[in-house]
Amino acid sequence: MNNKIKILHHDRIFTLLLVAIAVIFFYMIGKISDTPGIGELATATYPRVILGAFIFIAILQFFFPKKGDEKPVSFPVKGLLSILLIAVYIYLLDKVGYFLLTPLVLFILPLLAGYRQYLAIAISVIFVTAVLYGIFKLVLNIPLPAGFLGA
Amino acid sequence: MLLKKMIAVCTFAVSALTITPAMAAYPEKPITLVCWSSPGSGHDLMARYIAKLGEKHIGQPIVVVNKKGGKGKVAMSYVLNQKSDGYVIMTNTRSMTKRLKPTGGSIAIDSFKYISRVVQDPFVIVVKEDSPFNTMSDLVTYAKNNPNKIKVGGYSTQSVDEGLVHDIEKISKINLNYIPYKGGKEPVVAVLGGHIDVAIANPSEMMTSFQAGKLKALAVTTEDRFSPFDDTPTLKEQDINNVTVHWRGVMASKDVPDEAIQKLDNMIQKVLEEPEFKKFLNSSNMLSGYISNDKFGEYVTKQTKK
Amino acid sequence: MIDNLLLGFSTIATFPALFAIVAGVLIGIICGVLPGLSASTAVALMVPFTFGMDPVVSIVLLVSVYLAGEYGGSITAIAIGVPGTPAAAATMLDGYELTKQGKPGLALTTSVVASSIGGMIGAIILFCFSEPLANVALSFGAPEYFALAVFGLAIISSLASDNLKKGFIVMFIGLFLKTIGLDPFSGEERFTFGVPKLMDGLGFIPALIGLFAMASVFTDIDKATAKSRTIALSFAMPKIRQLLSMWKVYLHSSILGSIIGVLPGAGATIASFICYNEVKRFSKKKDQFGKGCLEGVAAPESGNNAVVGGSLVPLLTLGIPGSGTAAVLIGALMLHDIQPGPLLFQTNGNIVYGIFAGLFVACLAQLFFGLIGVPVWIKVISAPKALLLPVIASISVVGSYSYNNSIVDVWVMLGFGLLGYLLKKFNYPVSPIILALVLGGILEENFRRSLMISEGDFSIFVTHPISAVLLLFAVLSLLSPILFNRLAKVKS
């Protein structure tokens, strides 16, 4: 019995998190105008209905989860690290430039995934950067963040 | 190409002697023309034609960059955050300035200098071929007896289209049911499909269906009639004292030196005389609407106050 | 009719036109493969190149890019589980399963064959029935579009049939996220937090890239260990008999796809999902869908390529774009002083019939290059996953940035990446969000517009016949998996 509650834990915590976020947004709708025009729905009505329905089903899910939902979830250290890495990458994009940062990310991510063939990584870094540069810069001429190297 | 550049350099060298030294060299590097709508749209095409045809008149390449979002707000805040040296300018429209306050805040009418109005895009009020309405007075009479029953579609809310409908309501003392659509062509489609009664549309949005005889035009919103709607009376002719045209132009940050503004304005004036630009206006059913920089700002301010 | 056909083929039987078709197909496939460059972006990117070209050549080039772009998206969807275009999210459901089973060749070949057949049937429908189909486009008003959106959303009950509650939770997340931005009617801001970029709503392409591409990077890195190996992939191709036996699927989906393509605003994504659902509904091996069923690859691919022909119907006959890509095509036509509309068939017959013929030839070119490509793609995905992941990550970033030249879109992409990662981690289906994001806007806007037209009277949805029928179908398809489940339980 005790064991079962423990297993259900993770899925229920996630459901609760979703409900909590939905409630915050539901509260925010209060600031949106509620006066409709002729035969018209107010701006706030539609999001309110959607969020209401969402909260209703999420609560159903919380109390009556399906068998199999109770699978335990491991704490995602590497997953979170990779998200953080990408966030830093995006943050620095405008400042440093796409074609300086990308090789770096191309190098770090495989290491994070546990890959240790340095030569293969190095070759892929050079090859991929060259191909991306070729397609976006030379063929399609799409402007990318240039960073301090200038436009 | 090289020769062209050399001539350009010489021209600027000569003008350097006559105009103030600080701005003498403008433009000495490529100019960025920010466009607030997506590639391929009518607005984007105008920007690209100005860029393409303007290069030889101003002596530097002009690069179009699309900054879409927030009904132009993204492009405007981008332009205001760049150096005010005249190398970053942007396209504007009436619907964009219509949403701005005259002054104050981070973006307002007086945050910009208005280089020139380039084109004007009048409205045509259309109904389906089998509609009982043949003139504006038919419509007004019906609306007087049936308030809120006539469904009028137009582009977006708080738009020039909606403003025009409200003006007509006020002048004729009637009530119409205005229904906003996401694109300019959608109301025309809805009229063709019989889902609404009247559409407010620019010529480019209704021309082909009109020429095929599937639409009737009740009125045009210009001062005088224009081709190919020579048989369609203006609103004024039908006792509705209103002239409403949409326009598109070019503007820059308010701190850009007047010399640069003047040069850009001269360039646009020359672009408008190019046969290729005239052909573009013709094929996209727009009219030339040139207003020079000294009058354009005043024009925009007056329109916003209304 | 034969005269027109001959006129069409003779118009494009020039070296520049044929070259344009081949180049267009290649560019389209490449853009389709790259997430972020959807068919419509690819076409928009090509427009400036066509400035100085002959009108026929330029329009044939753009149509080829459009067609191949819709196909190209399925390659990455099958190969690495990252749909290159929104429509390919449906192809991924079964296609990626096959790759996981080590059989990418089956899915990739089926996809290119189904796409090309779909494209051809779409072209034939465009040629034969453009007049009557144009009236279908006109008959859809606000209540009809609302009903179509409800019908599309009802598919979720079959997409997520093994866990309905989670499917609907995800759908409502999508519908809610779609409300961010300016209210289309009052012009008021909703949940924009003062960011001007968000006034236009969350970008759909960044959302797609985040949910699939970025999220898969996070998930895989999380799972990866030093010892993890890539699956052994076979180069096995489907037998011709196997491909031929699916003729009903191709035909059914292509017809459905072209009709959906005709409706302005609906587009390839909706077509893909509806075709997938309909073929599943009528299939004898329902339970194999989602587990690597070739029919589940063929249906959406035939459907979304048939959309190309369909969306050209209202474009050429009425001058109304049937999809976002078609809107760009109209701009390109007008650049060449060609007014799409009712008179086009008389004034520029050579161009209209040239487009039919061009579309047809482009399908053949697509089939040829697609088949050549299959072994190449298998080779690419045989590379160690640890080397593929960073490539996906960097393309995701550049793809979402180039969508609008905006760093805000890249953050939106990362946000959706996080969401997709969490949903996968907690075993939620992801594809309902895509459907909800595509349909959410159509749903709300047309619901409210209908009520404005009817002055607040809800009966408008059932008094309009098309709307009533679609809503009835929606209820049926919503209930059918539940009823089938009950029935199966009773039997056992």
Automatic annotation (TrEMBL), chain A:
Keywords on record: Membrane, Transmembrane, Transmembrane helix
Pfam families tied to this protein: TctB (PF07331)
DUF1468 domain boundaries: 13-145
Protein name in UniProt: Tripartite tricarboxylate transporter TctB family protein
Record bears the keyword Transmembrane: yes
Organismal lineage: Bacteria, Pseudomonadati, Pseudomonadota, Gammaproteobacteria, Oceanospirillales
Statement: the UniProt record of this protein carries the keyword Transmembrane: yes
Residues passing through the membrane, by range: 12-30, 45-63, 75-92, 98-115, 120-140
Taxonomy, superkingdom: Bacteria
UniProtKB/TrEMBL annotation, chain B:
SUPFAM superfamilies listed in its UniProt record: Periplasmic binding protein-like II (SSF53850)
Record bears the keyword Signal: yes
UniProtKB keywords: Receptor, Signal
A Pfam family annotated for this UniProt entry: TctC
CDD domains: PBP2_Bug_TTT
Signal peptide feature range: 1-24
Similarity comment: Belongs to the UPF0065 (bug) family.
PANTHER family reported for this sequence: BLR1237 PROTEIN (PTHR42928:SF5), TRICARBOXYLATE-BINDING PROTEIN (PTHR42928)
Protein name in the entry: Tripartite-type tricarboxylate transporter receptor subunit TctC
From TrEMBL, chain C:
Record keywords: Membrane, Transmembrane, Transmembrane helix
Membrane-spanning residues: 6-31, 43-68, 74-93, 105-127, 133-156, 168-186, 198-218, 255-276, 312-335, 351-374, 386-403, 426-443, 464-484
Any Pfam family the entry gives: TctA
Domain DUF112: 18-435
UniProt keyword annotation of Transferase present: no
Recorded superkingdom: Bacteria
UniProt-listed PANTHER family: TRICARBOXYLIC TRANSPORT PROTEIN (PTHR35342:SF5)
Record-given protein name: Putative tricarboxylic transport membrane protein
Species of origin: Marinomonas pollencensis
